[in-house]
Design a protein that fits this description.
This protein is an alpha+beta fold. The protein has 27 helices and 12 strands. It comes from Miscanthus lutarioriparius.
Length: 761
Amino acid sequence: MQETVPVQEVFQHLKCSKQGLSSAEGENRLKIFGPNKLEEKTENKLLKFLGFMWNPLSWVMEAAAIMAIVLANGGGKPPDWQDFVGIVVLLFINSTISFIEENNAGNAAAALMAGLAPKTKVLRDGKWKEEDASILVPGDIISIKLGDIIPADARLLEGDPLKVDQAALTGESLPVNKHPGQGVFSGSTVKQGEIEAVVIATGVHTFFGKAAHLVDSTNNVGHFQLVLTAIGNFCIISIAVGMVIEIIVMYPIQHRAYRDGIDNLLVLLIGGIPIAMPTVLSVTMAIGSHRLSQQGAITKRMTAIEEMAGMDVLCSDKTGTLTLNKLTVDKTLIEVCGKGVDKDMVLLYAARASRVENQDAIDTCIVGMLADPKEARAGIKEVHFLPFNPVEKRTAITYVDGNGNWHRVSKGAPEQIIELCRMSKDAEKKIHALIDGYADRGLRSLGVSYQQRMKNYTIYAVSITIRIVLGFLLVALVWKFDFAPFMVLIIAILNDGTIMTISKDRVKPSPTPDSWKLKEIFATGIVLGTYMALATALFFYLAHDTDFFTKTFGVRSIKENDKEVMAALYLQVSIISQALIFVTRSRSWSFVERPGALLVIAFLAAQLVATCIAVYANWEFCKMQGIGWGWGGAIWVFSIVTYFPLDVLKFAIRYALSGKAWSNINNKTAFTNRTDYGRGEREAQWATAQRTLHGLNQATATSDLFGDNQGYRELSELAEQAAKRAEVARLRELHTLKGHVESVVKLKGLDIDTINQSYTV
């Protein structure tokens, strides 16, 4: 409602009065206008749960489940119910974990927001009551005072003007005056005054609500989702290529049985898809959101956590958002340069050079440092006060003390105060050094760690896809060995159980803002996956075609028994696949960076189960027979030996990919080889800008700005010229009649504009 509409017409339009609304009328209007809060989208719990099964990776697994029932029904064998049930269980396990973790994180954020629900004083039934701001409706009479956050858009009634801080809405740090009849906006903070107001808009109809609705209505696809899609597409394409090769080789060339070929295709589908990837990443962010809520931070969108971790430039409203919009004075940092003056005297002088009424933020914090704000004017008589202006960049006060002595005190920008003082060059250098030191501290960057858990897992997922597709492709096509799909399903289930714990792993944070480097993820995943696939092919060759293990470890030969080879191959694939996570989780040697206890326990438990299955299981439907503890130990030794080169490969890939990085290293401030982090260059550029601004020595503007010596020389020349101008002005004031008159006029605060200038003063 526009401020041009008189308040009386506002009452008529809203059908209310200064006595407020009745409770019954308030409830009726609440049904019409809705609660005074932003709309919150409610999600159907069932649809949210099923939504975790609706993504490209889950579609592939669902296709594998259908394939196990429909296409596997041939060759005189029944449908593959074991694989079908296993795939469905795996999908439900992943969805359940994701649903529970995100629900817990959402509940934590909701509880935190509920605790922050604002209260307000509202006039209902002729009585003032403190109620939740959410019950306010247009027509309510509210009372707002110093420190209150205005709960709704309103028009001010009779009373004294308010000072309102609208920094949260406009970014303006200075409070604005609001007079009776003017409007105030929801989300503003009252800085001075107390008054009653009539509510004219609530909820999404407020100025703040409309802005929030516009922001919320955007539906951009986040970077995190794009990365997931890219990695998922890579895995799907890899599997599709492997399946096409298998189909072409197995049926037209090798003339394999129909059902055996279907089983081999199921192995690629089930084992190659990192079905747990969306779950692991969403659980990781959900845990991060929950921990942030414990620190008082509200996460409205899970993927914002990942986006913030990759941020290297933050464009944000600072005042009142990143900062408290409140200045403070640190007394311990006060440096005293004059004799006979201590820190308390410096504070007192600064307070005297500040306003005691209608203060700005700087004056408020300085006067507030005194034990009693009245000390700023106690025992003195103010003669003249020079307010701050952007030209002189300082304030000044002329006063007379109790003994009749005149004093003049000024506070402001250090370079302006230095020009007013008489001091040696050494003293100036010392003060400039102090100023630079404080500036360096004020400009220091804020540090973001992002534990690299999500990046670790994506490399792991790509590696496993390549490892499964290539490894079993070689086994199926070169040796015509049909690996059981159900055993791959067991590997996937045990892997998921272990990998879920990575969301709570202890890893070193990235030393810099991190981002999704898909090139690094794919390159590392392909190389590590290829190595593990070749290691599996080597193991199969040694166990299936040679007596290597018999001669080396003294175990019985299993060359002629494909069922025992099935068990041995299952255990080798299970061990090396899960052990890979220890390589991808660390930036250094995997055995140097200690993993979290939960991850280690999960790995040992999963591999104990896998070892027991390989040692004891006799499953006819999988064509598998137990191999005994001797073979189990031999496979563990083989897996450990083939594990260590993974770290070397990881370092080699990182080194190969870092070639271009070195050419950009000098552009990073933290690694620059320029003197004093390039400070001389910045000062030289500033000096040239000042010369251009004042029309001084324009010819030097095109000179070399990037030499340290040149920069310091430019700066010193500028400082010398400024000092000369200040000295000329001071001498003019002392030794010329006109200058002396201007000095007296300024000191006494006289108005001489009306005096005829032809007269002598």
